[in-house]
Design brief:
With 291 residues, the protein is of the alpha/beta class. The chain is built from 9 helices and 14 strands.
């Protein structure tokens, strides 16, 4: 079992002919993901890496029955690309692009809501989603872990990869990189709910970071709605106040958004929080060994 992405998922790539789109389309194909086409209005009717290129998402969906789009377009054009995916009512849009203006993300997120939330948006500024052994939509390496029964949701791409690798002997149902921007589509809470409902997931790793209150809200949700064991890691314990650290959303203002505050909120509801990624992996290992 997996959440949102399975072996039946049919993937298209918006921006397939660009350098990043090409590179990661080849990687996704090599991993066994069912990539069925791409979108580039200027190159419609051609083929790229052996795949048909269409003028629009709607046309690609009609011709290929695609239900996932992975978006590799420059930041200036990301909002229009996501809106096109929303208009076509594709069930899942994975927005890899980094550097999307927050105003644009807010705009296409509001657009999705206004259109009835028929398209789940993951990202932007994220590594995507992978269900090991089944499918891979984005830039998560396909060979660093195995299929298993751990679910992972993370703000950080790099830490996603580290935890997947460190727990490779247990494996993952699905790993979701939600991105670290201040405004994102799918949240920790969305993933927690999906993993809670997934019979193929036994335990959950949640990776957060300083800035905002997403982890505190996730803690409140876990207390009331999640019965599966959760372990967490919060990046940024040594970050100086007022400095943006890596992700645009990772900034501490006064006492709000600190790693310590997030750790305390999570531990208060029974989530075990590691001081390092490796300790977090060890905590999950203990849980899985005792099941």
């Amino acid at each position: 079992m997996a959440i949102w992405l399975t072996e039946k998922s049919r993937i298209i790539v918006q921006g397939i002919t660009g350098s990043e789109g090409t590179k990661h389309t080849v990687r996704m194909l090599a991993s066994g993901a069912n990539v069925v086409g791409g979108v580039n209005p200027r190159k419609a009717g051609t083929t790229h890496e052996g795949l048909p290129v269409f003028a629009t998402v709607a046309e690609a969906m009609e011709k290929t029955k695609a239900d996932v789009s992975v978006i590799f377009v420059p930041p200036a054009f990301t909002a229009s690309a996501v809106k096109e995916a929303i208009d076509a009512e594709i069930p899942l849009a994975v927005v890899i692009t980094e550097g999307v203006p927050i105003h644009d993300t807010t705009e296409f997120w509001a657009y999705a809501v206004a259109k009835g939330n028929k398209t789940r948006i993951i990202g932007p500024n994220c590594p995507g989603i992978a269900s090991p052994g089944a499918s891979n939509a984005g830039i998560i390496p396909a060979d660093i872990t195995t299929p298993g029964r751990i679910g992972l949701v993370s703000k950080s791409g790099t830490l996603t990869y580290q935890l997947m690798y460190e727990l490779r002997d247990f494996g993952f149902s699905t790993a979701v990189g939600i991105g670290g921007d201040p405004v994102i589509g799918t949240t920790h809470i969305d993933a927690l709910q999906a993993f809670q409902d997934d019979p193929g997931t036994d335990a959950i790793v949640m990776i957060g970071e300083i800035g905002g209150d997403a982890e505190e809200r996730a803690a409140a949700y876990i207390e009331k709605n999640v019965t599966k064991p959760v372990v967490a890691y919060v990046a940024g314990f040594t970050a100086p106040e007022g400095k943006t650290m890596g992700h645009a959303g990772a900034i501490v203002s006064g006492s709000a958004g600190t790693a310590q505050a997030k750790k305390e909120a999570l531990e208060k509801v029974g989530v075990r929080v590691g001081k390092t990624p490796s300790e977090t992996a060890r905590l999950m290992r203990e849980i899985m060994q005792n099941r």
